[in-house]
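Can't paste images in this forum, so I'm doing it all in text. The chain is below; anyone willing to post the predicted structure tokens underneath?
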Amino acid sequence: MEKSLFEKYGGFSVVSKIVLDLYDRLLDDDDVGPFFDEIDMARIVDHQTKFVSSLMGGPASYTDEQIRRMHRHLDIQQAHFDKLQGLLRATLADHGVAPEDQEIILGAFEARRGLVTE
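Text version of the structure:
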């Protein structure tokens, strides 16, 4: 049986490191950083760790409705999503995720674009 990307890269402990690094990059970014002002970062990092894990075939999952509900109060434009996607790609690469595996993860992320953007 083939391992999921979640299993291949070490499960929650590795995904958590990737997500923490991603949020360091997001918070430093002038375009997307302001979305996280006055946000409970521990809570959002926990959600994002579960979300990225789900994109990698891990045990967590989110329904389209949950994703839509979590983002509907935000004015996330296509350019914001593109920036986040680029930062996610760079973060995955810096954590040793193979290019072909990055494409799988980013493809799953892209599939949810319409749930969070205007």
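The chain has a mean pLDDT of 93. The radius of gyration is 14 Å.
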